[in-house]
Amino acid sequence: MAWKHNGRTIQVGKAWVADDNTKHPRGWVRWDADRKEAMGLVWEDDPTPLAPYDNFYYWGWNGDGDALLPKPLADLKASKVSQAKTSSASMLSNTDWYITRKSETNTAIPSGITAYRTAVRANYTVLKTAINNASDIAGLQACYATTAGASQTAKEIDATSSSVVSTSDNTITINGHGFVNDEEVNYYVGINSDEDPAAVIGGLVNNTTYFVIASTTNTFKLSESHSNCGDEAVVSLTGLSSDGTAQKFTSYGKPSAGNTFPNQDMPKYGA
After folding, report:
1. Domain-located, residue 68
2. Alpha-carbon distance 82 to 159, whole Å?
3. pLDDT tens-digit series, residues 28-77
4. Which tens digit of pLDDT belongs to each residue from 181-228?
5. pTM of the prediction?
6. Which domain holds residue 85?
7. How many domains does the structure of the chain reveal?
8. For the chain, N or C: smaller number of CB within 10 Å?
9. What is the distance between the alpha carbons of residues 137 and 134, in angstroms, rounded to a whole number?
10. Regarding beta strands 165-166 and 171-173, do their DSSP bridges make them parallel or antiparallel, or are they unpaired?
11. Contacts 24+ apart (CB under 8 A), 83-86
12. At what angle do helices 73-93 and 111-133 cross, to 10 degrees?
């Protein structure tokens, strides 16, 4: 912000000379508005700063500052496919030694390891297809977005109740829960009457995220992996919580393919 005279900044507290060589005292700032205007002084606010942008997708703002200059879509797609391939290879590298051991000693690869590696490749294929199908930058960005879930508040359940937790068909019942298939939810056991962590529902792990599957208006089931991994399967609920009367499921939203690679720590991927 500054006072200007014919485009030239006038320093507050300093004398200045107008374009016609008229000298003005350093106390000019105390002039009233009319005199400042008569002397050709104009107050200018600082320009509005340009909004930040993602420099992976854009070169920057145009000269007028009203539009972003996009990078070539084909180049962006190629880069994203390359990144996805590199990321997938990194995920697989943790279990490559099982493949080497099988080759050298004919020791069987654990089924969980094979399942994990297959899931990584499946999700990579889905992501690659989504990237290549993107028709613009917004579509490409959507490959890595997580949309808000239909239900934004944590859903509390009495996990000691068989009318809420069904071990016969592996469902959780919450009337009007709002969760949709492939939505990511976090399971939290809460605190029991002794102020200790409550017992888990059999088959689940505390503070772990799952994906909603087989959702209906009032019930849903859980999977340890997203459908993009090609191995979505219902988690078996093997028992009620003994003291978890205030357990919660909290939505983390519905992720796109860039955010659905399998979690190797899930039990079904164990060695």
Report:
1. no
2. 45
3. 989 999 998 888 899 988 777 788 989 999 999 998 888 999 999 999 99
4. 999 999 999 988 888 899 999 999 999 999 999 999 999 999 999 999
5. 0.80
6. 73-142
7. 3
8. N
9. 7
10. antiparallel
11. 84/124, 84/127, 84/128, 84/131, 84/258, 85/124, 85/128
12. 180
